[in-house]
Amino acid sequence: MADDFKYHIDHHVTLAPPAELAEARAVHAPASPDLRAAEDAAIENAVRMQRRVGVQAVGDGQFRRRHALSVVYDNVEGFGPAEDGGAVASLLGPRLAAEVRPLKTVPVRKNRLAEDEARFLSGVTGHPLMLSLPAPGWVLAVDGGDRAAGEALAGIVRDEIAALAGEGIVYIQLHNPVYSFLLSVAGAARARELGLDPASLLDEMLAADSAVLAGLEVPEDFRVCLDITTSAAADFSQGYDTEAVRTFLERQPFGKVCVEFLNAGFPLELLPAGLVISLGIVDVTDPAPESVDELLDLVDKAAEIVPIDDIALSTNGGFTGALTEDQEHAKLQLVEMTARYYWGNEL
Fold this sequence. Notes:
Layout: H1 19-27, H2 33-53, H3 70-73, E1 76-79, H4 87-92, E2 103-109, H5 115-124, E3 129-134, H6 136-143, H7 147-165, E4 169-175, H8 178-183, H9 185-193, H10 198-211, E5 223-227, H11 242-251, E6 256-260, E7 276-282, H12 292-303, E8 311-315, H13 325-343
Parallel strand pairs: 3-4, 4-5, 5-6, 6-7, 7-8
Antiparallel strand pairs: 1-2
Helix pairs in contact: 1-2, 6-7, 6-10, 7-10, 12-13
């Protein structure tokens, strides 16, 4: 069965911090009670918004994190001080590589990664909960490191996922946006211009990210998906590199993958049987709402290639701050509305 929660509606954990939280973060120290209170209020509001939209699992907006990779930098030893970004940081841009801290030694966990986030969320709502974690391959790509570092990071993430599965979390999105840059024709060309070898980098990331699932023990209804969305940061103007996508799909072991489909045209004909594909069809960077009819047409085209039970619908990534809170809410409602139109009473 394709959709993890009966619904064919998916979404991404990341929401843009509300103005009050951004202001609090600018004036208060990281451990300040005032900042903590602002984070708490923002998370509670985000949960209410997601419940109103009708999503099956709610997240915390990542409002505890300075940026996506900070949850690793703050809780894992082995990283050096922040430095100017290298080739991968240039490829990704400042939003997806907001901080670069080169790996100096094999990483070792000093604290749990998301225990506090899970504890607070479970105290806010009894609804099914989801969190996003940075994939070890993303960390390796940005900060460097060898196979041993990748295996160590994979073990840290694996242990965290296993712990979260016992703390009320039902769905983890393992996020690695670097894949989309390397799988697109334009992104791979830019990577080569920066002195990167897309094939080698893809191989290193797949090894690290696949290792997360090795020996992972979680309840039967717990789900881990690989999220490769970039919130429209990657350049899909020249389409996808078919051979690179084929290699990626043959080697990645996850049962569900989140991709960008709007203006990207992911090559669905390459999908192996049984892989659930979450199609990013609503743009998180454009405040204008998409036409439901146009979105339904996109799903129709996908359903000509992929069994409809192996499709979920989502935005093309987490929200970036380009939209207001009301616009974010409207975009999530569009995803929900389109799925309800398409699957009808099944939802």
